[in-house]
Design a protein that fits this description.
CATH superfamily of the largest domain: Vaccinia Virus protein VP39
Number of strands: 11
Strand order of the largest sheet: 3-2-1-4-5-7-6
Structural class: alpha/beta
Shape: globular
Length: 314
């Protein structure tokens, strides 16, 4: 019997394999390598066992009917002795010491946040989330609740696009923006020089004759972001679709909506998603004016411009 896989499941499996490989002794010494919360059909735990990514896996679901499907799948595949199913809501049926990687996929970002709220994972735990809605809310919740986002990629499959977000609990709040050039790695940001005003926006600066930086006048600078290239020429960091510069706060919002890694790793699935959504909004606005639709189109336009600027596309 073969499991029908797709890009979403493959993206999840890559994350699981990466984190189980961080310290194989942890997975080897634990009863279970992964736990799939809200497993439904059981495809993810089945594949991790069949591919030898983990020795054993737990599948939980609030629905006993869904678990019956998973049990049948495990039995048909001959891995019933390497899997366990448990009925329970969220993390109520499993402890953090029972698995290294926890997968929570196929539900909204608000639901995932509620599952995690008030719980303290262990240092070695890793999480793989696939929120079908409200990914923005989940990213913001994770950063404010002590989680570090380790990876955040869009996986496209047959015209559908999924956010695959990996995280680890660190016990401290993470600032999800670009202050001081972060989160751009050296390979992306180069010799950038950022300047932040008292109200938290970036301002353009120039070098005077003595090689020192001097600011433009208040009336000239606005909410601009500039960087210095290797040859000391100043250029605008990012422009949105209207040709205006994006302030730091706008870039942070875009990252929270769409995932930072999609911009930094030249993810073409993600670019396809942006283009598809922009075209959809264009078609709607041709038929009827809708302010919310226009605002959403502007957000996707800005994200596409940001992606192309980072990846030097014209």
């Amino acid at each position: 019997m073969n499991i029908k896989s797709d890009k979403r499941i493959e993206a999840i499996l890559r994350e699981i394999e990466k984190y189980c490989g961080e310290n194989n002794s942890i997975c080897d010494n634990m009863c279970y390598g992964i736990c799939d919360i809200g497993t439904d059909h059981g495809f993810v735990p089945a594949e991790t066992v069949l591919r030898g990514i983990v020795p054993r896996a737990i599948a939980t679901d609030i629905s006993e009917k869904s678990l019956e499907k998973a049990r049948k799948l495990f039995a048909d595949l001959g891995i019933a002795d390497k899997t366990e199913t448990r009925t329970g809501d969220g993390l109520s049926a499993v402890g953090f010491d029972e698995a290294k990687v926890f997968v929570i996929a196929g539900m909204g970002g608000h639901n995932i946040a509620e599952i995690l709220r008030g719980r303290t994972p262990l240092e070695y735990n890793r999480f793989v989330f696939v929120p079908h809605t409200n990914a923005y809310f989940l990213r913001d919740f994770l950063c404010r609740s002590g989680y570090e986002i380790l990876s955040d990629r869009c996986a496209g499959d047959s015209g559908k696009f999924y956010d695959v977000i990996s995280a680890a609990y660190r016990g401290k709040e993470f600032c999800f923006d670009i202050a001081g050039g972060e989160p751009f790695p050296e390979s992306v940001r180069g010799d950038f020089s950022f300047f932040e005003s008292a109200d938290g926006v970036f301002l353009p600066f120039s070098k005077n004759g003595g090689g020192d930086f001097s600011s433009f006048s208040d009336g000239a600078r606005g909410d601009f972001s500039f960087f210095e290239s290797a040859d000391s020429d100043f250029s605008p960091l990012f422009k949105n679709a209207d040709g205006r510069f994006l302030p730091r706060g706008a870039i942070r919002e875009i990252f929270l909506h769409f995932g930072r890694d999609n911009f930094l790793s030249a993810n073409e699935d993600f670019r396809d998603k942006l283009i598809k959504k922009v075209n959809e909004f264009d078609n709607i606005l041709k038929r009827v004016y809708n302010i919310k639709c226009k605002e959403q189109k502007s957000l996707f336009d800005s994200a596409l411009s940001l992606y192309d600027a980072i990846n030097k596309r014209t």
